[in-house]
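Feature request, filed as a ticket because there's no other form

It would be nice if the structure record came with a short human-readable summary line next to the tokens. Right now we just get the raw output. Example of a typical job, pasted below so the devs can see what we mean:
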Amino acid sequence: MQNGFKDLKITRQFIDALEGMGITDPTEIQAKGIPPALSGQDVLGIAQTGSGKTLAFLLPLVMKIKHAGDGRPKALIMAPAKELALQIFDVLTQLTVNTDIRSVCLYGGIGKNAQAQSLNDGCEIIVATPGRFLDLYSHGFVELKTVKTLVLDEADRLMEMGFLSQLKSMLEVIPTKRQNLLFSATFPERVKYMADEFL
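Raw output as currently delivered:
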């Protein structure tokens, strides 16, 4: 790719952020996944860990949000474990360095008061593990009516870890008119079933 991310219609502020991260050219999953995601289609991306999946869904997400809004979330990214949620959140923070987009990371293992406060303060993007997300939602801390994009990262691990029923509960409360981006390192039967449910 000659112009790297420019060919994918990524704007200057995000190209600058990518360059600051030492990234100049899209990987295969980014080159294939970003255009349909940017155009609003549902995307199912199968690619190995380390192939650049995170940016394949984060770039279209931040491109569409552009800047801070009314403080109600526009996107929800679900990850199977705290480590992955924090990893995504870290990349997201670096990617939005030249914007006023606000993100919150929700995960268990620590008290939830600070996370609840961050939600109250307002954000555009929520990165979360299913358990902590549903916990905070059930206590009225999460506003979902404005969510336009749902991302399920490491879908195979979400399945392996037995999160299907929690994800189904989540689907009941998220707007049905939304974009779904589902990424997975492998595509076993359980993930096919999940893709049928979500996409």
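Something like this underneath would help us a lot:
The mean pLDDT is 92.
DSSP finds nine helices and six strands in the chain.
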